[in-house]
Amino acid sequence: MQMPVAAIDVGSNSVRVAVIRADCDGRLEVVEEASTSPRLIRDVQSDGVLSGTSITQIVDLMRDYRAIAEGAGASATVAVATSAVRDAQNSAELIEAVRRDAGIDLRVISGEEEARLAFLGAVHSLPAEDGMVLDIGGGSLQILRFEGRQVRESWTLPLGAVRLSDAFLKSDPPTSQELRACRKHIRALLIRARIPPLAAGGQLVGTGGTIRNLAKIDRARRRYPLSRLHGYVLEAPRLRAAGRLLRARKTAARASIDGLNSNRADTIVAGALVVQTVMQALQATDMVVSGQGLREGIVIAQCEGGELSASSTVRRVAVGDLIEVFAHDRGEEAERRTRIAVALAAGADLGDASVGEVLRVAAALLDIGRSIDYYNRHRHTEQLVLAHGLAGFSHREHALVCGIVRAAGEPKYDLDAYSEVLSKADRDSAARAATILAVADELERRIPPHALVEYSAIAGRLAVRGAPVGWNAGDITDRFEKTFGRSVEVVSAE
Predict the structure, then answer these.
(1) What range does the domain containing 14 cover?
(2) Which of 71, 276, 330, 407 could disulfide-pair with 367, CB 3.0 to 4.6 Å?
(3) Residues 377, 346 contacting (CB under 8 angstroms)
(4) Are residues 279 and 318 in the same domain?
């Protein structure tokens, strides 16, 4: 991977830095980050200019962020400013002060470029091919339409959470009249922009602090098994429930709601109204939440071509990197186990064809848990996947990988632990895939290193060619027969 790059986002609500290491194969690693919320949009809205106090505060922050970048070994620092600085009449004064006193070149970007960079960061490690990106900041809203992971068109509207809160929601909590006026204003601007609805099969991807906080609030109200926010699916009915909870409370009480950052308590109601209204206008039933955004997009744009890697590349690299870090000396075993599992799956009914691809991943990753403890390797593999995550995979796929691995080692493991992510049909398919993985693992353990082996399976009969196999099957064949209604027979054919 290349040397890390420091990306600084001088936004309307927050000023953030992230030092990120990336490459053009789809890897993306955050090395350091920091954030402060000076809310420049309020300064600009008062008289159209940035005050001397705000300029001094930004310069001080940029000095600190430069130190963070240098401490993390960043090879370059790229700093951009968005809505509030775009709107300020004296933005040139801020740019000069930052250059002179902090040694950083700050560039004011257009709404179109802001949307493109947010798209690059938000969609990078999500399995999204077509759809729309929704990015809500303090001062503006960006909506971008993409096809084949390529930008098609974008819109920038003055519908930021801080801007709308200050303009419409004067009471605490806001009155029904204020809420109606705010919704009416949002709808009017969306209609005027003539933004098309989400195309059939497309995904709505949401990014930005407002959206991430709404997702955290919803997740905190569930027994959700995945701690990673990136890839979380926020459904429209659950978003409406969170919105009702937020607007019914005063700011002080709102700040104590699980999942909400206290510094957003005074603007989250307006932000929720924007998200709800946009989802209705786009006819979206849910939204995939991205834990990444503008800063990651800045770094991706520095890579050759400045475009997104294919989803398949991001997924392949994510699996390969986990194996390299935690089981670098067991790559051959992982490949053999995967081939056996694929052969067995071809002759068995998993109930859902998409689970077959996830089974491949589970088989490849099984050994990473050995890096912690051999005897509990299935559970530790599950924990490592949950903690580290798999770029390019959905939460459903994360849960399937973890459930399959854990149940392979523990036949009585209750897959209902993943019921908030996996349907009953998914859990049944995962149990069947876990049996196949358990058989594949038992067989792989009995094949000599470096053996050239071929496998084929028909109706439970697994033919192994090219290596001697001695297998005291024990209970594993009984498990296969109970799961699939037929026995598994291993035949070594020279």
Answers:
(1) 5-109
(2) 330
(3) no
(4) no
